[in-house]
Structures are given as structure tokens and as C-alpha cells.
## 1
Amino acid sequence: MVIIVALTGIASFAIPQYSIAISLRILRFPLMLSATIMGGFGIMIMFLLILLHLCKLRSLGQPYLASLAPFQFSRMRDVLVRVPLKVLLRSVRNNVSRPNK
């Protein structure tokens, strides 16, 4: 447990945005507490609660996880790593010129 706490403390300094780092520090303590009390099952429950919270969030009137919810393979390319802008604009132009059937 000491090693895990030390690694999470060191890893928290690697996050560049301050607001994200604060939210992860706040989430770290309930995760460690649930892991201490219930073990791996507690970690799974906490991750499920975090996922449920993310599903409930809305940003600018759109669901926060809208790009993941109705699965379309063409929308998955921007989920983890953003494609170059040229490729993105080319695909947008192709979709606009081709009407839905």
C-alpha cells in the first residue's frame, strides 16, 4: 500500500493542467479508502460510480460521453488521440457532400 500511495503521489505531479490534477487528487482518496476496505471489488465499485457520474454529465447541452454512446466506428478515431486537422476536415467535407440514405 505504501508503494502504491508513493507512486500515485509522484504521478500526480506529471499532470500538466492544475484543474485536472486537483480533481484527480480528490478522487484518489475515496479510491484508496474503498480499495483498503473492500480490495479489488472496492476499486471496481468506485470506477463504476465515476463512470455513472460521467454518463450523467452534460456539457453545452450534449452528453459528456456522446462520442462513445451510440457506437459508430467512424467517430472512434477522435476518442483517445486526435487525428490531424487536414484528415478531420477532409472527412467532414466528404460527409457533407454525401447525403444520408
## 2
Amino acid sequence: MKIKVQGLKELDAALGQLRTKAMARGVIKRALIEAAKPMHQQAQEAAPGRADPNEVITYGKGDNRRVRQPGTTQALVQIGDRLTKRQAGQARKAGKSFVEIYVGTRDAKAHFEEFGSANQPPHPFLRPAYDSEAEPTIRRFVGTLTNELEKVAVREARRTARLAKKGTS
């Protein structure tokens, strides 16, 4: 899939004008999360549910025993920057980025829902959401990033005025 996006050089220059790297990272992260919400919503709606959402499921044996918390698979589809220990290890191998967010699940057994197994047919819910929302998410990101930069500019202008009124800079 190829997507051509214009105007990112100007946005990058605007991000470079921010006071700190942390501010730029926060702006990008908020814009990414906002842009990915429709993909997250679509994955949640397509995720298969459980017959009894209050049932606590345990799997594994001995020291490897794990508990799948009550809730539905829909509740396990998340958006954010946190990964499980295993997923984080895989992400480290892939390399570091300035800002990353993820739409997916932390459930160790969700891949069986997505891809199936010898005893269970596949019920894909993440890949269809990605396929239909990848390009619109990137387009939304550019608009959302512009809005976030405008909000930061207003906040910085208020801060500058407040500091000028106090007589410090």
C-alpha cells in the first residue's frame, strides 16, 4: 500500500519550534491516538465476544498459569503506547521511533481468535480494521496534528503573556 501525504515538512518544522522534545512527543502522541480511534472502534465492534463476559478463564500449567480477566474480547482491544513484555521485546528488535502507538490487544490468546487454530476457525477483527482504516487514519493524523499544534500555540501564547505579566521569562 502506498500513501502520499503532503505538508509533513511544514508540520515537522512547527514541531521543531516547540519548547521541548517532550511537548512535541505529547502533541504527536495525542494526534496519533485521536486519528486511530476509528480503527480501534472498528476492531472492537468486529471482535468476537464471550458467552459469559464475567467468567475468569485460566490457562497454562504450573508456573506458567495465567488468568484471562473477566470481560469480552472487545474490551481487550486497546489503543495506546504500552505493550506486553513479549510485545515490547519484539518492538525493541524492530527499532526505536520518536513516538509510537499501538492498536491491538494485550491478550495472549487473542491471536487464536484472529488467525484460528486446529480446533477453532479464524475470526479476524484487527486485520480488517487495519485494511479499511490505514489510509484514512494517516489522512486524519495530518489534520489532527495541525489542530494539536494550534492548541499548543494558543497555550504557549497564554504562558508567554502570563510570564510577561509577572516580569519573568
## 3
Amino acid sequence: MKSKLLAAAALGFATLSLAACGETATEEPAGEVDAMPGVSVENARLILPAVAGNPGAVYFDIKNESDRGASVQAVDVAAAKSAAMHEMAEWSGKMEMMPMDQIMVQPGTTFALEPGKVHIMASDLEEGLASGGSTEVTLTFLGGDKISFLAEIRAAGEAR
């Protein structure tokens, strides 16, 4: 019950945050405001859906070179009305997409969000997004630290 409540609160926070920043980034993000020291993001990409109106998926690698764990609690995608953390898991003999309360990155490790595993679902994408563009993604960590970065926009089927 507690994890469902936390997940609902995190999703609500992400939704409210997205409403305030609904523009697609075309330049470098404003900066890593309150960024957690030692944490960086690489290889960020938003994969557009094959069918217009369906959600897109955001993948990236979170590198934690600090001496403490980093727990992602919420995510914002500027080009989406809502964003949520998901993982694929087996349930009753078949693979199901399940919501996640957090993404934990241990000290000295890199956590990869990748197809068929962990991803960010970006729903209600802005019209007109095209391969080759970019959008800003912001991660919020436990304790309030944030990091913003650009994700390259790719068409469905392009190299992930």
C-alpha cells in the first residue's frame, strides 16, 4: 500500500512539473541545477512511437561516481505531458510492464535504461517531434537533487 501511495505521489509530482515546462528543448539545458555531485547521464534518447498517439520511450545510462547511492524518484520529459518509470518483469508466465517507485544506482556503477528492461514512458508527446531533434529530461533524486540533460529524438526502428 505504501509503495502504491508513493508511486501515485511521484507520478502526480511528475505530471504537475511537466505542465510547467511543456516546451521542447532545442539548445543545451539550463544546467544541472542542484545536480548530485558525481552523477552524470550519457546516451540519452527518446524513441518516438511507431503509431502516432502512443507513448514514446526514453533510455539513457546513469553513471554514479559518488560515494553514496543515487535514487531517482521522479522524471520529467519536456516534450511529454506525463512521464513514468517502468520495468519489464515476468508475471504469471508472461512479460508485463510494471511501474517503478525509484531507480537505484549504487556508488561506482552505471545503470542502463534499455529496451525490454527499464525505461521511461513518455505519454502524450507534443505534435511535430521528429528524428534528429532533442528534448530536455530532468531526473529528481531522493533529497531533491536534480539533473537535466538533452535526449536525442529518434524514430521508431532507428538504432536504440
